[in-house]
Specification:
The chain is mostly helical and 238 residues long. The chain has two domains: 73 residues, Winged helix-like DNA-binding domain superfamily/Winged helix DNA-binding domain (Arc Repressor Mutant, subunit A); 142 residues, Up-down Bundle (Four Helix Bundle (Hemerythrin (Met), subunit A)). The chain has eleven helices and three strands, in the order H-E-H-H-E-E-H-H-H-H-H-H-H-H. A three-stranded antiparallel β-sheet has the order 1-3-2. The radius of gyration is 20 Å and the shape is elongated.
Length: 238
């Protein structure tokens, strides 16, 4: 197993506990740790080059987010994100994304608007070339621009967390050219509403954009993917 020395990470953004928490959360959401798998303090501490204390503190925060369950005298077990969680996240996110677009309409800078337009042009270029990985990256960046433009650190934090929770699922279901093109077209409509200072229309379009993304996930096998994960987990525990 490769060693990840979290203390050598070049950033002061998070405390040691915070960096352990973010690394573990990323590993859970990326599928490194599977549902019902036990997380062992000692092994994780050794892998990350830290003592058990920041790992234990990170476990408590992960439990508060519903990603693990700590069972007294037994251990910490991954609960992860269920298919029902994904639906809830998208329904909540659709409302927050609409609010974000409304506020962005009022507060976006010329530089942010220019980057948003460039993002859409680049996505159209890569869609024509069939570059699905670049389309996914540009899709993520479009939303980041809008989150930054809303100028609310609280709303930005919530939306980025929700985005992170379903990133692995999004990678699987966005990786087809038709949805990539449709998503970028929806981005263009949102951008045009923001540019026209039509806050109500921007909110409505952003809300619908997230609903469309969820419906696309369902259409492209969201429930089947989770069913297969559960079957794989049950097979491993036999």
């Amino acid at each position: 197993m490769g060693s990840y020395d979290v203390k050598q990470e070049v950033t002061d953004k998070y405390s040691l506990r915070g960096r352990v928490f973010h690394k573990l959360r990323e590993d859970i959401l990326n599928g490194k740790y599977k549902e019902h798998e036990e997380l062992k303090e000692v092994a994780i501490g050794e892998e990350m080059g830290v003592s058990r204390t920041p790992v234990r503190e990170a476990f408590r925060q992960l439990e508060l987010e519903g990603l693990i369950q700590i069972i007294p005298n037994k251990g910490a077990y991954v609960t992860g994100i269920t298919v029902e969680d994904v639906k809830d996240i998208y329904m909540i996110r659709s409302l927050l994304e609409g609010l974000c677009a409304r506020w962005a309409t009022e507060k976006i800078t010329e530089e942010q608007l220019e980057e948003m337009e460039e993002n859409i042009y680049l996505a159209e270029f890569h869609a024509a070339k069939g570059h699905l990985e670049q389309i996914a990256e540009l899709d993520n960046r479009f939303h980041d621009i809008m989150y930054e433009a809303c100028d609310s650190k609280m709303l930005q934090h919530l939306l980025k967390d929700f985005h992170q929770y379903v990133l692995r699922v999004r990678r699987k279901t966005l990786s087809n050219a038709s949805r990539g093109e449709a998503s970028n077209h929806e981005h263009r409509l949102i951008m045009e509403a923001i540019k026209a200072k039509d806050a109500s229309k921007a909110e409505e379009l952003a809300n619908k954009h997230i609903i469309n993304a969820y419906e696309n996930m369902v259409k492209n096998g969201l429930e089947e993917m989770y069913s297969q994960q559960e079957a794989d987990t049950e097979e491993k525990t036999k």
